[in-house]
Structures
1.
Amino acid sequence: MATKKEDTKSREGSPVTAHHQRQNLFEVVTAQLHKAYDAIKLESDIAAILSQPKNELIIHFPVRLKSGEVRMFKGYRVQHNNILGPYKGGVRYHQDVYLDECKALASWMTWKCALAKLPYGGGKGGVKFDPRQYDADDLERITRRFTHALGTNIGPEYDIPAPDMGTNSQTMDWMMDTYVNINSSVDRQGLKRVVTGKSIACGGSQGREAATGQGVVYCIQEWAHAKRFNLDGSTLAVQGYGNVGSNAARILSRMGVTLTAVGDHTGYYRNPEGFNPHKLADHVKRQRSLDGYPGGQKISREEFFASEVDIFVPAALELQIGSDEAKEIRAKVVVEGANGPTDTDGDRVLAERGIDIIPDILANSGGVIVSYYEWLQNKRSESWEADEVVSRLERRMRRNYQAVVDKARDLKVDYRTASYAIALERLRDVYRARGIWP
Ligand code: GLU
């Protein structure tokens, strides 16, 4: 008889996730952190505090669907740390969402925000269901009911959700509208910044949509510059063609980088002549996946990882690069658009093979950086021009990248450990100064 897998391990199924036994995501972030604790000799009491989230919320809520049927949904919000500012991080809609995943992702938000010098802590949440199975009407009902169930566990100065996998600006508009309506206040405008990543019409920021992909590209440019590598004429593989992957590929194409391999949970494709990244994005927008894309030759997941490319951008689910994949990757650099795409063995194998890794908390921080700009604009009743947002993002990303390079050199560690070290030192300074109450 088939036994139901434990919540924390139910990870297989689609081509993107098809990979033997996967590590628990929280174990991955814990292992990464321990390397950084050692590198900066972090005090054990501060390490103990930072090793666990402050709050873990699991809620079950009923939704009456358009059909009249009432279905129960399971939602999560994990709040990892708020010593630097309100909890901040996305909301994910995916059938495989599980508690330890939210814990890991919330923890990554703490490090990402601290590394980027944003006045935020880390949080992450989600609802365990497949959004592709529901139409806009039902997605709205689920989103509003989830927001209601979260109640005062979110707030514009307390915990600020944003889009993540399976959610977008429409989801954020619904969340914002629900929050503002259930927290009736004279300050309705002020409550709007309870979420970021909203549509422009609802107070979103110019540049937020493309920000994560744009940030990935700044990292690739910095890497190329340091390595004296000419991006013009180089090749790219992207796993996952959602917001992050598609924007990175489109922006890189303007710099002469050709996308020759691409894939998502429905399959993988190769085209030595190069895909048109804009047509691919249009297809995904219409079909909600790459399935049925007419250009290119269908290849296996293994062939995809072994693609002969210069730059590899995982921008899909976590835990995609284990030791098997890491042995096959031929790229010079892996730039983590996704959160946690590389497991502990994958990390080690890539390092042994001399393949550079630009870690997630640096590479994909463009999204939360522009979320901060959105929150600031809302707070000040301002709306910045697109070029102002982009130039601020560029300056901040390039500065953060250089800080990581310098820290890696000083501590003689890899970029991932250096990124954690910077984030941890910022948090440590506050804990040292404030002490632990009482
Ligand atoms: N979900 C995105 C991330 O993982 C964005 C979070 C935000 O903007 O708050 O970084």
2.
Amino acid sequence: MKSIHIDLGKDSYDIHIENGLLDRAGEYVRNLTKSQTLAVISDTTVDGLYGDRLEQALRKEHYNVRRIVFPAGEKYKCAETLLQLYQELSDAGITRSDYIIAFGGGVVGDLGGFAAATFLRGVPFIQIPTTIIAQVDSSVGGKVGIDLPSGKNQAGSFYQPKGVLIDPELLRTLPLRFIHDGMGEVIKYGCIHDIALFELLERLDDETIFGHWEEIIERCCSSKARLVERDVLDLGERMMLNFGHTIGHAIEGCYGYGYYTHGEGVAAGMAMLTAVTEDMGLTKAGTSDRLRSVLKKYSLPVDVAASADDLFPYISNDKKMRGNNMTLIILKELGQGRLLPLKAEDLPKYIRKRGSK
Ligand code: NAD
Ligand code: GLY
């Protein structure tokens, strides 16, 4: 078992990572709360696969368990589902001395966490993430929220969980496309913070990685925990997590959400940007080739057909833009990211294809 403490004063908590943890979830939850009733929020897919096992594990500790399930998919991370969750929490008689568990991928974590943050002005909650994205990223750091018709994650809050319980074995049922999607973010951690992780990913592949998830998740969560501790409100160093995301979001938007997954957009964004910053002498020579080959190994794109002119309109609404200023994340070398503050008018120098001006 691996544990990481995230030190945020009164909002501190532990992340526990262990194969098979799901069946012992009751013991972990009992260490966090003496409450009697738990509302487990999940989506149809995760509830169908693992809902009974989690309920059984929690009942061993004599909890009353109320399962609240909504349909799987990003389109349900919306205000309408949130209102339904409030109603079901109310019907279940959940009070502020009870606990909510968000059990699923990033959609469940964001939506269930936002319901926890806002129902009765805040009910404590625990994250039990079940996708790679959720296990290495979204369950840690307290960003919760929903999408609005005007944009992704536009309504939300910072609301830290009381604990994060990660069972890497749950990843075995994840469809391959979601594995690759998550690998985009895992490779990102290697790039910005952890050369040993990057080198491990160079040695592994789609098959052999399954023996290493505990270590990989621990390395990613440690990187994220340290960044969140130093910048919980995402005003400085935490922005490092956005490496590849400026171009990545533009790719997702330009092709219509759903054509490229988030991880695929980020992968192409990291590769395209690093090729350019290497040519500009800002990134150590050879970085781009190593990055491209590790991305390809996990079936991730390193370029897209859209031109820089096609992508550019989708960047201007990027939330990393503040007034005329923005921060781009680039690599000094593998394992070392850096924040590069820019004026918006300088952005086209970076958002272009290698070799073009
Ligand atoms: P998701 O929650 O939609 O999960 C992807 C699919 O996998 C769903 O259909 C889900 O039902 C299914 N699934 C989940 N676990 C499974 C398992 N173990 N086996 C089989 N199927 C399983 O999406 P995601 O990729 O986990 O997360 C994406 C969301 O996370 C986005 O909404 C994004 O905005 C958010 N996000 C938030 C943060 C944050 O810091 N809060 C960070 C990154 C991403
Ligand atoms: N996923 C980015 C963050 O938590 O800041």
